[in-house]
């Protein structure tokens, strides 16, 4: 028995020790360290794997029929900005635009576009309701407050209210002008059942004009 105790004491004295003087059992220490490294790597993989899934959930895919309608109305470079029941009428609509890349900085918020359309799905066919290019127009004519001089670009802001539907705010981009231009608000008018512009108090809808005094086109 004495011999066994002496051997046990010698084995403890020969074991590596830490700077603090405590005995380190290397196999157990290495196993614990390996488990910690594995847990950290698995956690990182789990976080990276769930991030794309979360991004995909926040950005639903645009239906192919909406993309096809947008290309037909504005060309292959057009972007779908909104789609769904935008007027709260139970019908599917889309808002698409030709967005200018690298929008110039301005004191006015929003993106710069050259053209935009609002279209509605009527029995499988997408029908244009509003066109924004040199001027603002719907099926009845030119929207009120649209500039007489043709506009080459617009700064667009939009929002989609769960109760009242889509709002558009369009400000003409006029080169060489320093004055601030008020945005033109466009909304669905449930009484006339079409999109119309509003007065600058954003409380009353305005009628259309069948013609302008001197419309000029610079895009065609």
Name the structural class: alpha+beta
Strand content: 25-35%
State the total count of DSSP E strands.
Answer: 11
SSE order: HHHEEEEEEEEEEE
Overall form: globular
Distance between the termini: 107 Å
Biggest beta-sheet profile: 11 strands, antiparallel
Classify the oligomer.
Answer: single chain
Radius of gyration: 33 Å
What is the arithmetic mean of pLDDT? Answer: 78
Q: In percent, how helical is the residue content?
A: 25-40%
Poorly predicted regions? 1-6, 12-26, 46-50, 52-56, 215-220
Compute the number of helices. Answer: 3
Number of domains: 2
Please provide a written account of the structure:
26% of the residues lie in helices and 30% in strands. The model is unreliable at 1-6, 12-26, 46-50, 52-56 and 215-220 (pLDDT under 50). The chain folds into two domains: 2-58; 64-209, no CATH class. By secondary structure, it is an alpha+beta fold. The protein has helices at 2-14, 26-58, 64-74, and strands spanning 79-84, 93-99, 111-122, 125-132, 136-138, 141-143, 154-161, 165-172, 184-189, 194-197, 208-209.
């Amino acid at each position: 028995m004495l011999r066994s105790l002496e051997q046990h004491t010698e084995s403890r004295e020969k074991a590596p020790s830490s700077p603090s003087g405590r005995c380190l059992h290397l196999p157990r220490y290495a196993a614990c360290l390996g488990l910690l490294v594995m847990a950290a790597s698995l956690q990182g993989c789990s976080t990276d794997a769930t991030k794309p899934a979360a991004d995909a959930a926040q950005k639903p895919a645009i239906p192919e029929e909406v993309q096809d309608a947008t290309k037909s109305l504005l060309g292959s470079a057009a972007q779908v900005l909104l789609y769904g029941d935008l007027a709260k009428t139970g019908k599917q609509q889309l808002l698409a635009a030709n967005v200018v890349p690298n929008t110039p900085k301005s004191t006015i918020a929003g993106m710069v576009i050259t053209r935009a359309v609002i279209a509605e799905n009527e029995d499988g066919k997408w029908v244009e309701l509003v066109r924004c290019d040199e001027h603002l127009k719907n099926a009845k004519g030119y929207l009120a407050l649209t500039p007489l001089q043709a506009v080459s670009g617009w700064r667009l802001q939009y929002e989609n209210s769960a109760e009242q539907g889509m709002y558009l705010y369009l400000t003409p981009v006029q080169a060489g002008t320093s004055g601030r231009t008020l945005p033109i608000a466009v909304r669905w008018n449930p009484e006339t059942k079409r999109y119309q512009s509003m007065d600058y108090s954003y409380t009353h809808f305005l009628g259309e004009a069948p013609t302008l005094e001197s419309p000029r086109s610079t895009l065609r």
